[in-house]
Design brief:
Layout (H helix, E strand, L loop, with lengths): L1 H14 L2 H8 L4 E3 L2 E3 L9 E9 L2 E11 L3 E5 L9 E4 L5 H4 E10 L4 E6 L8 E3 L8 E6 L3 H5 L5 E10 L4 E4 L10 E4 L5 E6 L13 E4 H11 L4 E3 L28 H16 L4 H9 L5 H10 L1 H43 L4 H14 L2 E13 L5 E8 L4 E6 L5 E2 L10 E5 L5 E4 L6 E3 L2 E2 L5 E3 L6 E3 L2 E17 L1
Parallel strand pairs: 9-16, 19-20
Antiparallel strand pairs: 1-2, 3-4, 3-6, 4-5, 5-8, 6-7, 7-8, 10-11, 10-13, 11-12, 13-14, 14-15, 17-18, 17-27, 19-21, 21-22, 22-25, 23-24, 23-26, 26-27
Helix pairs in contact: 6-7
Length: about 475
Amino acid sequence: MQRSFVKLIARLALSMGLLMLTGTSVAQDLQRGGRYVLPPGSMPAWTVPVLRLVSATHVEPTTGVVLSDTGLVLVPEEFAGAGDEIIVLDGGTDIIRNGRPAKIERRFTVEGLQVLSVQGLKRRGVTLASSPLEQGSEIVLTAFPPAEQIALGEPPLSLPATVLVYGENQRPSVSGETALPNVTGALVDTCGNLVGVSIANEIQSMESSPATRYQWRDTLLGILRELGVPPSESACSPVEDEPAAPPVDEPEPEPVVEDAAPAEPEIEEPVTEPPEEVSETEPAPEEPAEELLPDILPPLESGADEAPAPVEETPSRAWLWLLAGVSLIGIGYLLHRVRRPRTGELAKTDGNEPHQPDTGAQAAGESEAPTLRLDSVLRISGALADGTEFEDSCPVSEHAINVTIGRSGTDLVIDSRAVSRRHVSLNGPWRELTVSDLGSSNGTSINGVPCLEGEIMYIETRDVLVLGDARCALEIGPRSGAGSIES
């Protein structure tokens, strides 16, 4: 059975064009000028193609990340289950020579990942970034394309993207302007260090999907700690090519422009000529003219005649402004006097029955005050990652639910360190109930779809709500002896 499966995979691998992909997947990572560069059509040395037998004529490929040289490979949890036949191709498409049988070693359900144990795989483990991502960091998705693109001979994917960081928890997210396709692959920084993994939702495709999940460096470090594998980390210092700019400062010798000073003597020469002619008539005004440039003399002469005029007009303008201000004050006073009798008359007419309207308004206000009846009980139940079951409930109004869930001091309490003190809030009527993450440390998801901080998502009766390591279910029922509160 095993040999027939091997032959089947060999035929399918060749027909799908995996020769080009896996033949270059072992290419060495390059460091050129401090930037991460991969040869076209190649993959990092710590990635491997993983195949799962779907039927007698079909296999499903995905991208695996080698965690250690002991043969541990990271893949999505939904990729394979118990009893599935899994093969890891190591350095070629010859299944007999390069195929490595694999089995599931451990599952990480909350993270949506699982670790395979591959026999005979001796590749060096991945190197993680030594520091978390920052706002605007650049990353690259490296992955084997979906099966349809593999069959067409498409090379491995190498797609750049930009990272955004949300909230106080500094949780990374891929920018919508650089959305990535719905494929499983490795996310590396500009130095080739692993910073996260992309987990495709259901069938892989080249179209982007809001359901694609991303697990980042902190989650991967936690998985390595759980497996007892010491992480290999490397810092990525940005390349500083800008120091080459100082040579631009050399053009400072441009002070040669100061040689323009000799132009002044040229201007002085024409100035000496006019004084000889004008000196015969009015020598006194000519003396200051010798100190000024000829181009400026005409405006000075024309302005000299107009200068005394503004001095005479200044008092008149001041009086005009003063009169305008006084007139405005007088107009305002007259308007005030005219309006006072009218308001007095209105006060007299309204004074006959001053209390009846106010009493009616108060009565209307009291009648409009909403009455909220706590006619139902909202119950939350589920289990933690270690199997511990929990349950809690609180009275609510089925048509106006406003409940907070957290570790302590909330309406519904889940006793788990992985649940934040105030984790999420539930709002709205039961049939249109919404969930909002309150900045939790370990995140929130509905049916595997992450709920980001500040995001509002609808939840239905059969949906699975994950808070940290707690998988929860919500239900509502009638409350015996329902009371009411005034709001």
